[in-house]
Amino acid sequence: MVKAGKLLANEPLAKYTSWRVGGPAEKMYLPSDKDDLIRFIAAQPEHEEIFWLGLGSNLLVRDGGIQGVVINSRGRLKEMKLLDSARVYVEAGVPCAHVARYCSDLGLTGAEFLAGIPGTMGGALRMNAGAFGGETWNIVDCVEMINHRGEVSKRDKNDFEVAYRSVKGLAGEWFLSVELILTQGESVLSQQKIKALLERRATTQPTNKPTCGSVFKNPPGDYAARLIEACGLKGFCIGGACVSEKHANFIENQGHATSADIETLIDHIRTQVEEKQGVSLQTEVCIVGERI
């Protein structure tokens, strides 16, 4: 029996983003599973704009919202399975932290760093997300892609140009799933490593506040947080958006921030760092949607 997903109209995106800001999605589709999503995309007009949403981290949706269709993969494209002794299949909607624990429980090592990434596997693939010295594409074997016509293809990692927080070669395609290649090890040691990474994250980052994760990419040979702090910007606020006192590369929503507040603060930080430190910071966060 074919199970269809749900199509919502004018759906507020603030409740789906980790910053808790953002205007409405013109349309939002909640697929029932991967096959349903493939059918839905194949049925869309060629001109329809399609945007994928996972956990809503690393994302700033402007106050005017997003036109077209937002595909909400969170909790939907969620299958994980062991393919052989060292390869794991993961669909794009699975949270990275779940992948880390799943692999650890299987006694597979190499994916522990994913516990520190507050997004889905699809988002991690899109930007080559990393944490604690690990990067997503270092453990990728191959990926499954879908294009605007609903055509699915399997692609080797060498088909993409992968760099620090950057993946090129995605024009008109999106990630459906990935096969990770890992190393056989011991569950106990892997679990201990994950625990240590999460404790370190809680100590150094404002994990209990509405943030997007790191706002800026680290420039070569330096750290964005160091440069921002050197400009005296820790605790600096615009509207309801403030530079975190705990980690200067995080912007916190104090409860009443708008997307415009956050974007204005991002621009202010970039200007200050360039003027005072001579470094042009590049955003890691993806800024999308319409301004009001």
UniProtKB/TrEMBL annotation:
<keyword id="KW-0285">Flavoprotein</keyword>
<keyword id="KW-0133">Cell shape</keyword>
<protein>
    <recommendedName>
        <fullName>UDP-N-acetylenolpyruvoylglucosamine reductase</fullName>
        <ecNumber>1.3.1.98</ecNumber>
    </recommendedName>
</protein>
<comment type="function">
    <text>Cell wall formation.</text>
</comment>
<dbReference type="GO" id="GO:0008762">
    <property type="term" value="F:UDP-N-acetylmuramate dehydrogenase activity"/>
</dbReference>
<feature type="domain" description="FAD-binding PCMH-type">
    <location>
        <begin position="21"/>
        <end position="185"/>
    </location>
</feature>
<feature type="active site" description="Proton donor">
    <location>
        <position position="214"/>
    </location>
</feature>
<feature type="active site">
    <location>
        <position position="165"/>
    </location>
</feature>
<dbReference type="GO" id="GO:0071555">
    <property type="term" value="P:cell wall organization"/>
</dbReference>
<keyword id="KW-0521">NADP</keyword>
<dbReference type="InterPro" id="IPR036635">
    <property type="entry name" value="MurB_C_sf"/>
</dbReference>
<dbReference type="GO" id="GO:0051301">
    <property type="term" value="P:cell division"/>
</dbReference>
<dbReference type="InterPro" id="IPR016166">
    <property type="entry name" value="FAD-bd_PCMH"/>
</dbReference>
<dbReference type="InterPro" id="IPR016169">
    <property type="entry name" value="FAD-bd_PCMH_sub2"/>
</dbReference>
<dbReference type="InterPro" id="IPR036318">
    <property type="entry name" value="FAD-bd_PCMH-like_sf"/>
</dbReference>
<keyword id="KW-0132">Cell division</keyword>
<keyword id="KW-0963">Cytoplasm</keyword>
<dbReference type="GO" id="GO:0008360">
    <property type="term" value="P:regulation of cell shape"/>
</dbReference>
<feature type="active site">
    <location>
        <position position="284"/>
    </location>
</feature>
<dbReference type="GO" id="GO:0009252">
    <property type="term" value="P:peptidoglycan biosynthetic process"/>
</dbReference>
<dbReference type="GO" id="GO:0005829">
    <property type="term" value="C:cytosol"/>
</dbReference>
<keyword id="KW-0560">Oxidoreductase</keyword>
<dbReference type="Pfam" id="PF01565">
    <property type="entry name" value="FAD_binding_4"/>
</dbReference>
<keyword id="KW-0961">Cell wall biogenesis/degradation</keyword>
<dbReference type="InterPro" id="IPR016167">
    <property type="entry name" value="FAD-bd_PCMH_sub1"/>
</dbReference>
<comment type="similarity">
    <text>Belongs to the MurB family.</text>
</comment>
<dbReference type="InterPro" id="IPR003170">
    <property type="entry name" value="MurB"/>
</dbReference>
<dbReference type="Pfam" id="PF02873">
    <property type="entry name" value="MurB_C"/>
</dbReference>
<dbReference type="InterPro" id="IPR011601">
    <property type="entry name" value="MurB_C"/>
</dbReference>
<dbReference type="GO" id="GO:0071949">
    <property type="term" value="F:FAD binding"/>
</dbReference>
<keyword id="KW-0274">FAD</keyword>
<keyword id="KW-0573">Peptidoglycan synthesis</keyword>
<comment type="pathway">
    <text>Cell wall biogenesis; peptidoglycan biosynthesis.</text>
</comment>
<dbReference type="InterPro" id="IPR006094">
    <property type="entry name" value="Oxid_FAD_bind_N"/>
</dbReference>
<keyword id="KW-0131">Cell cycle</keyword>
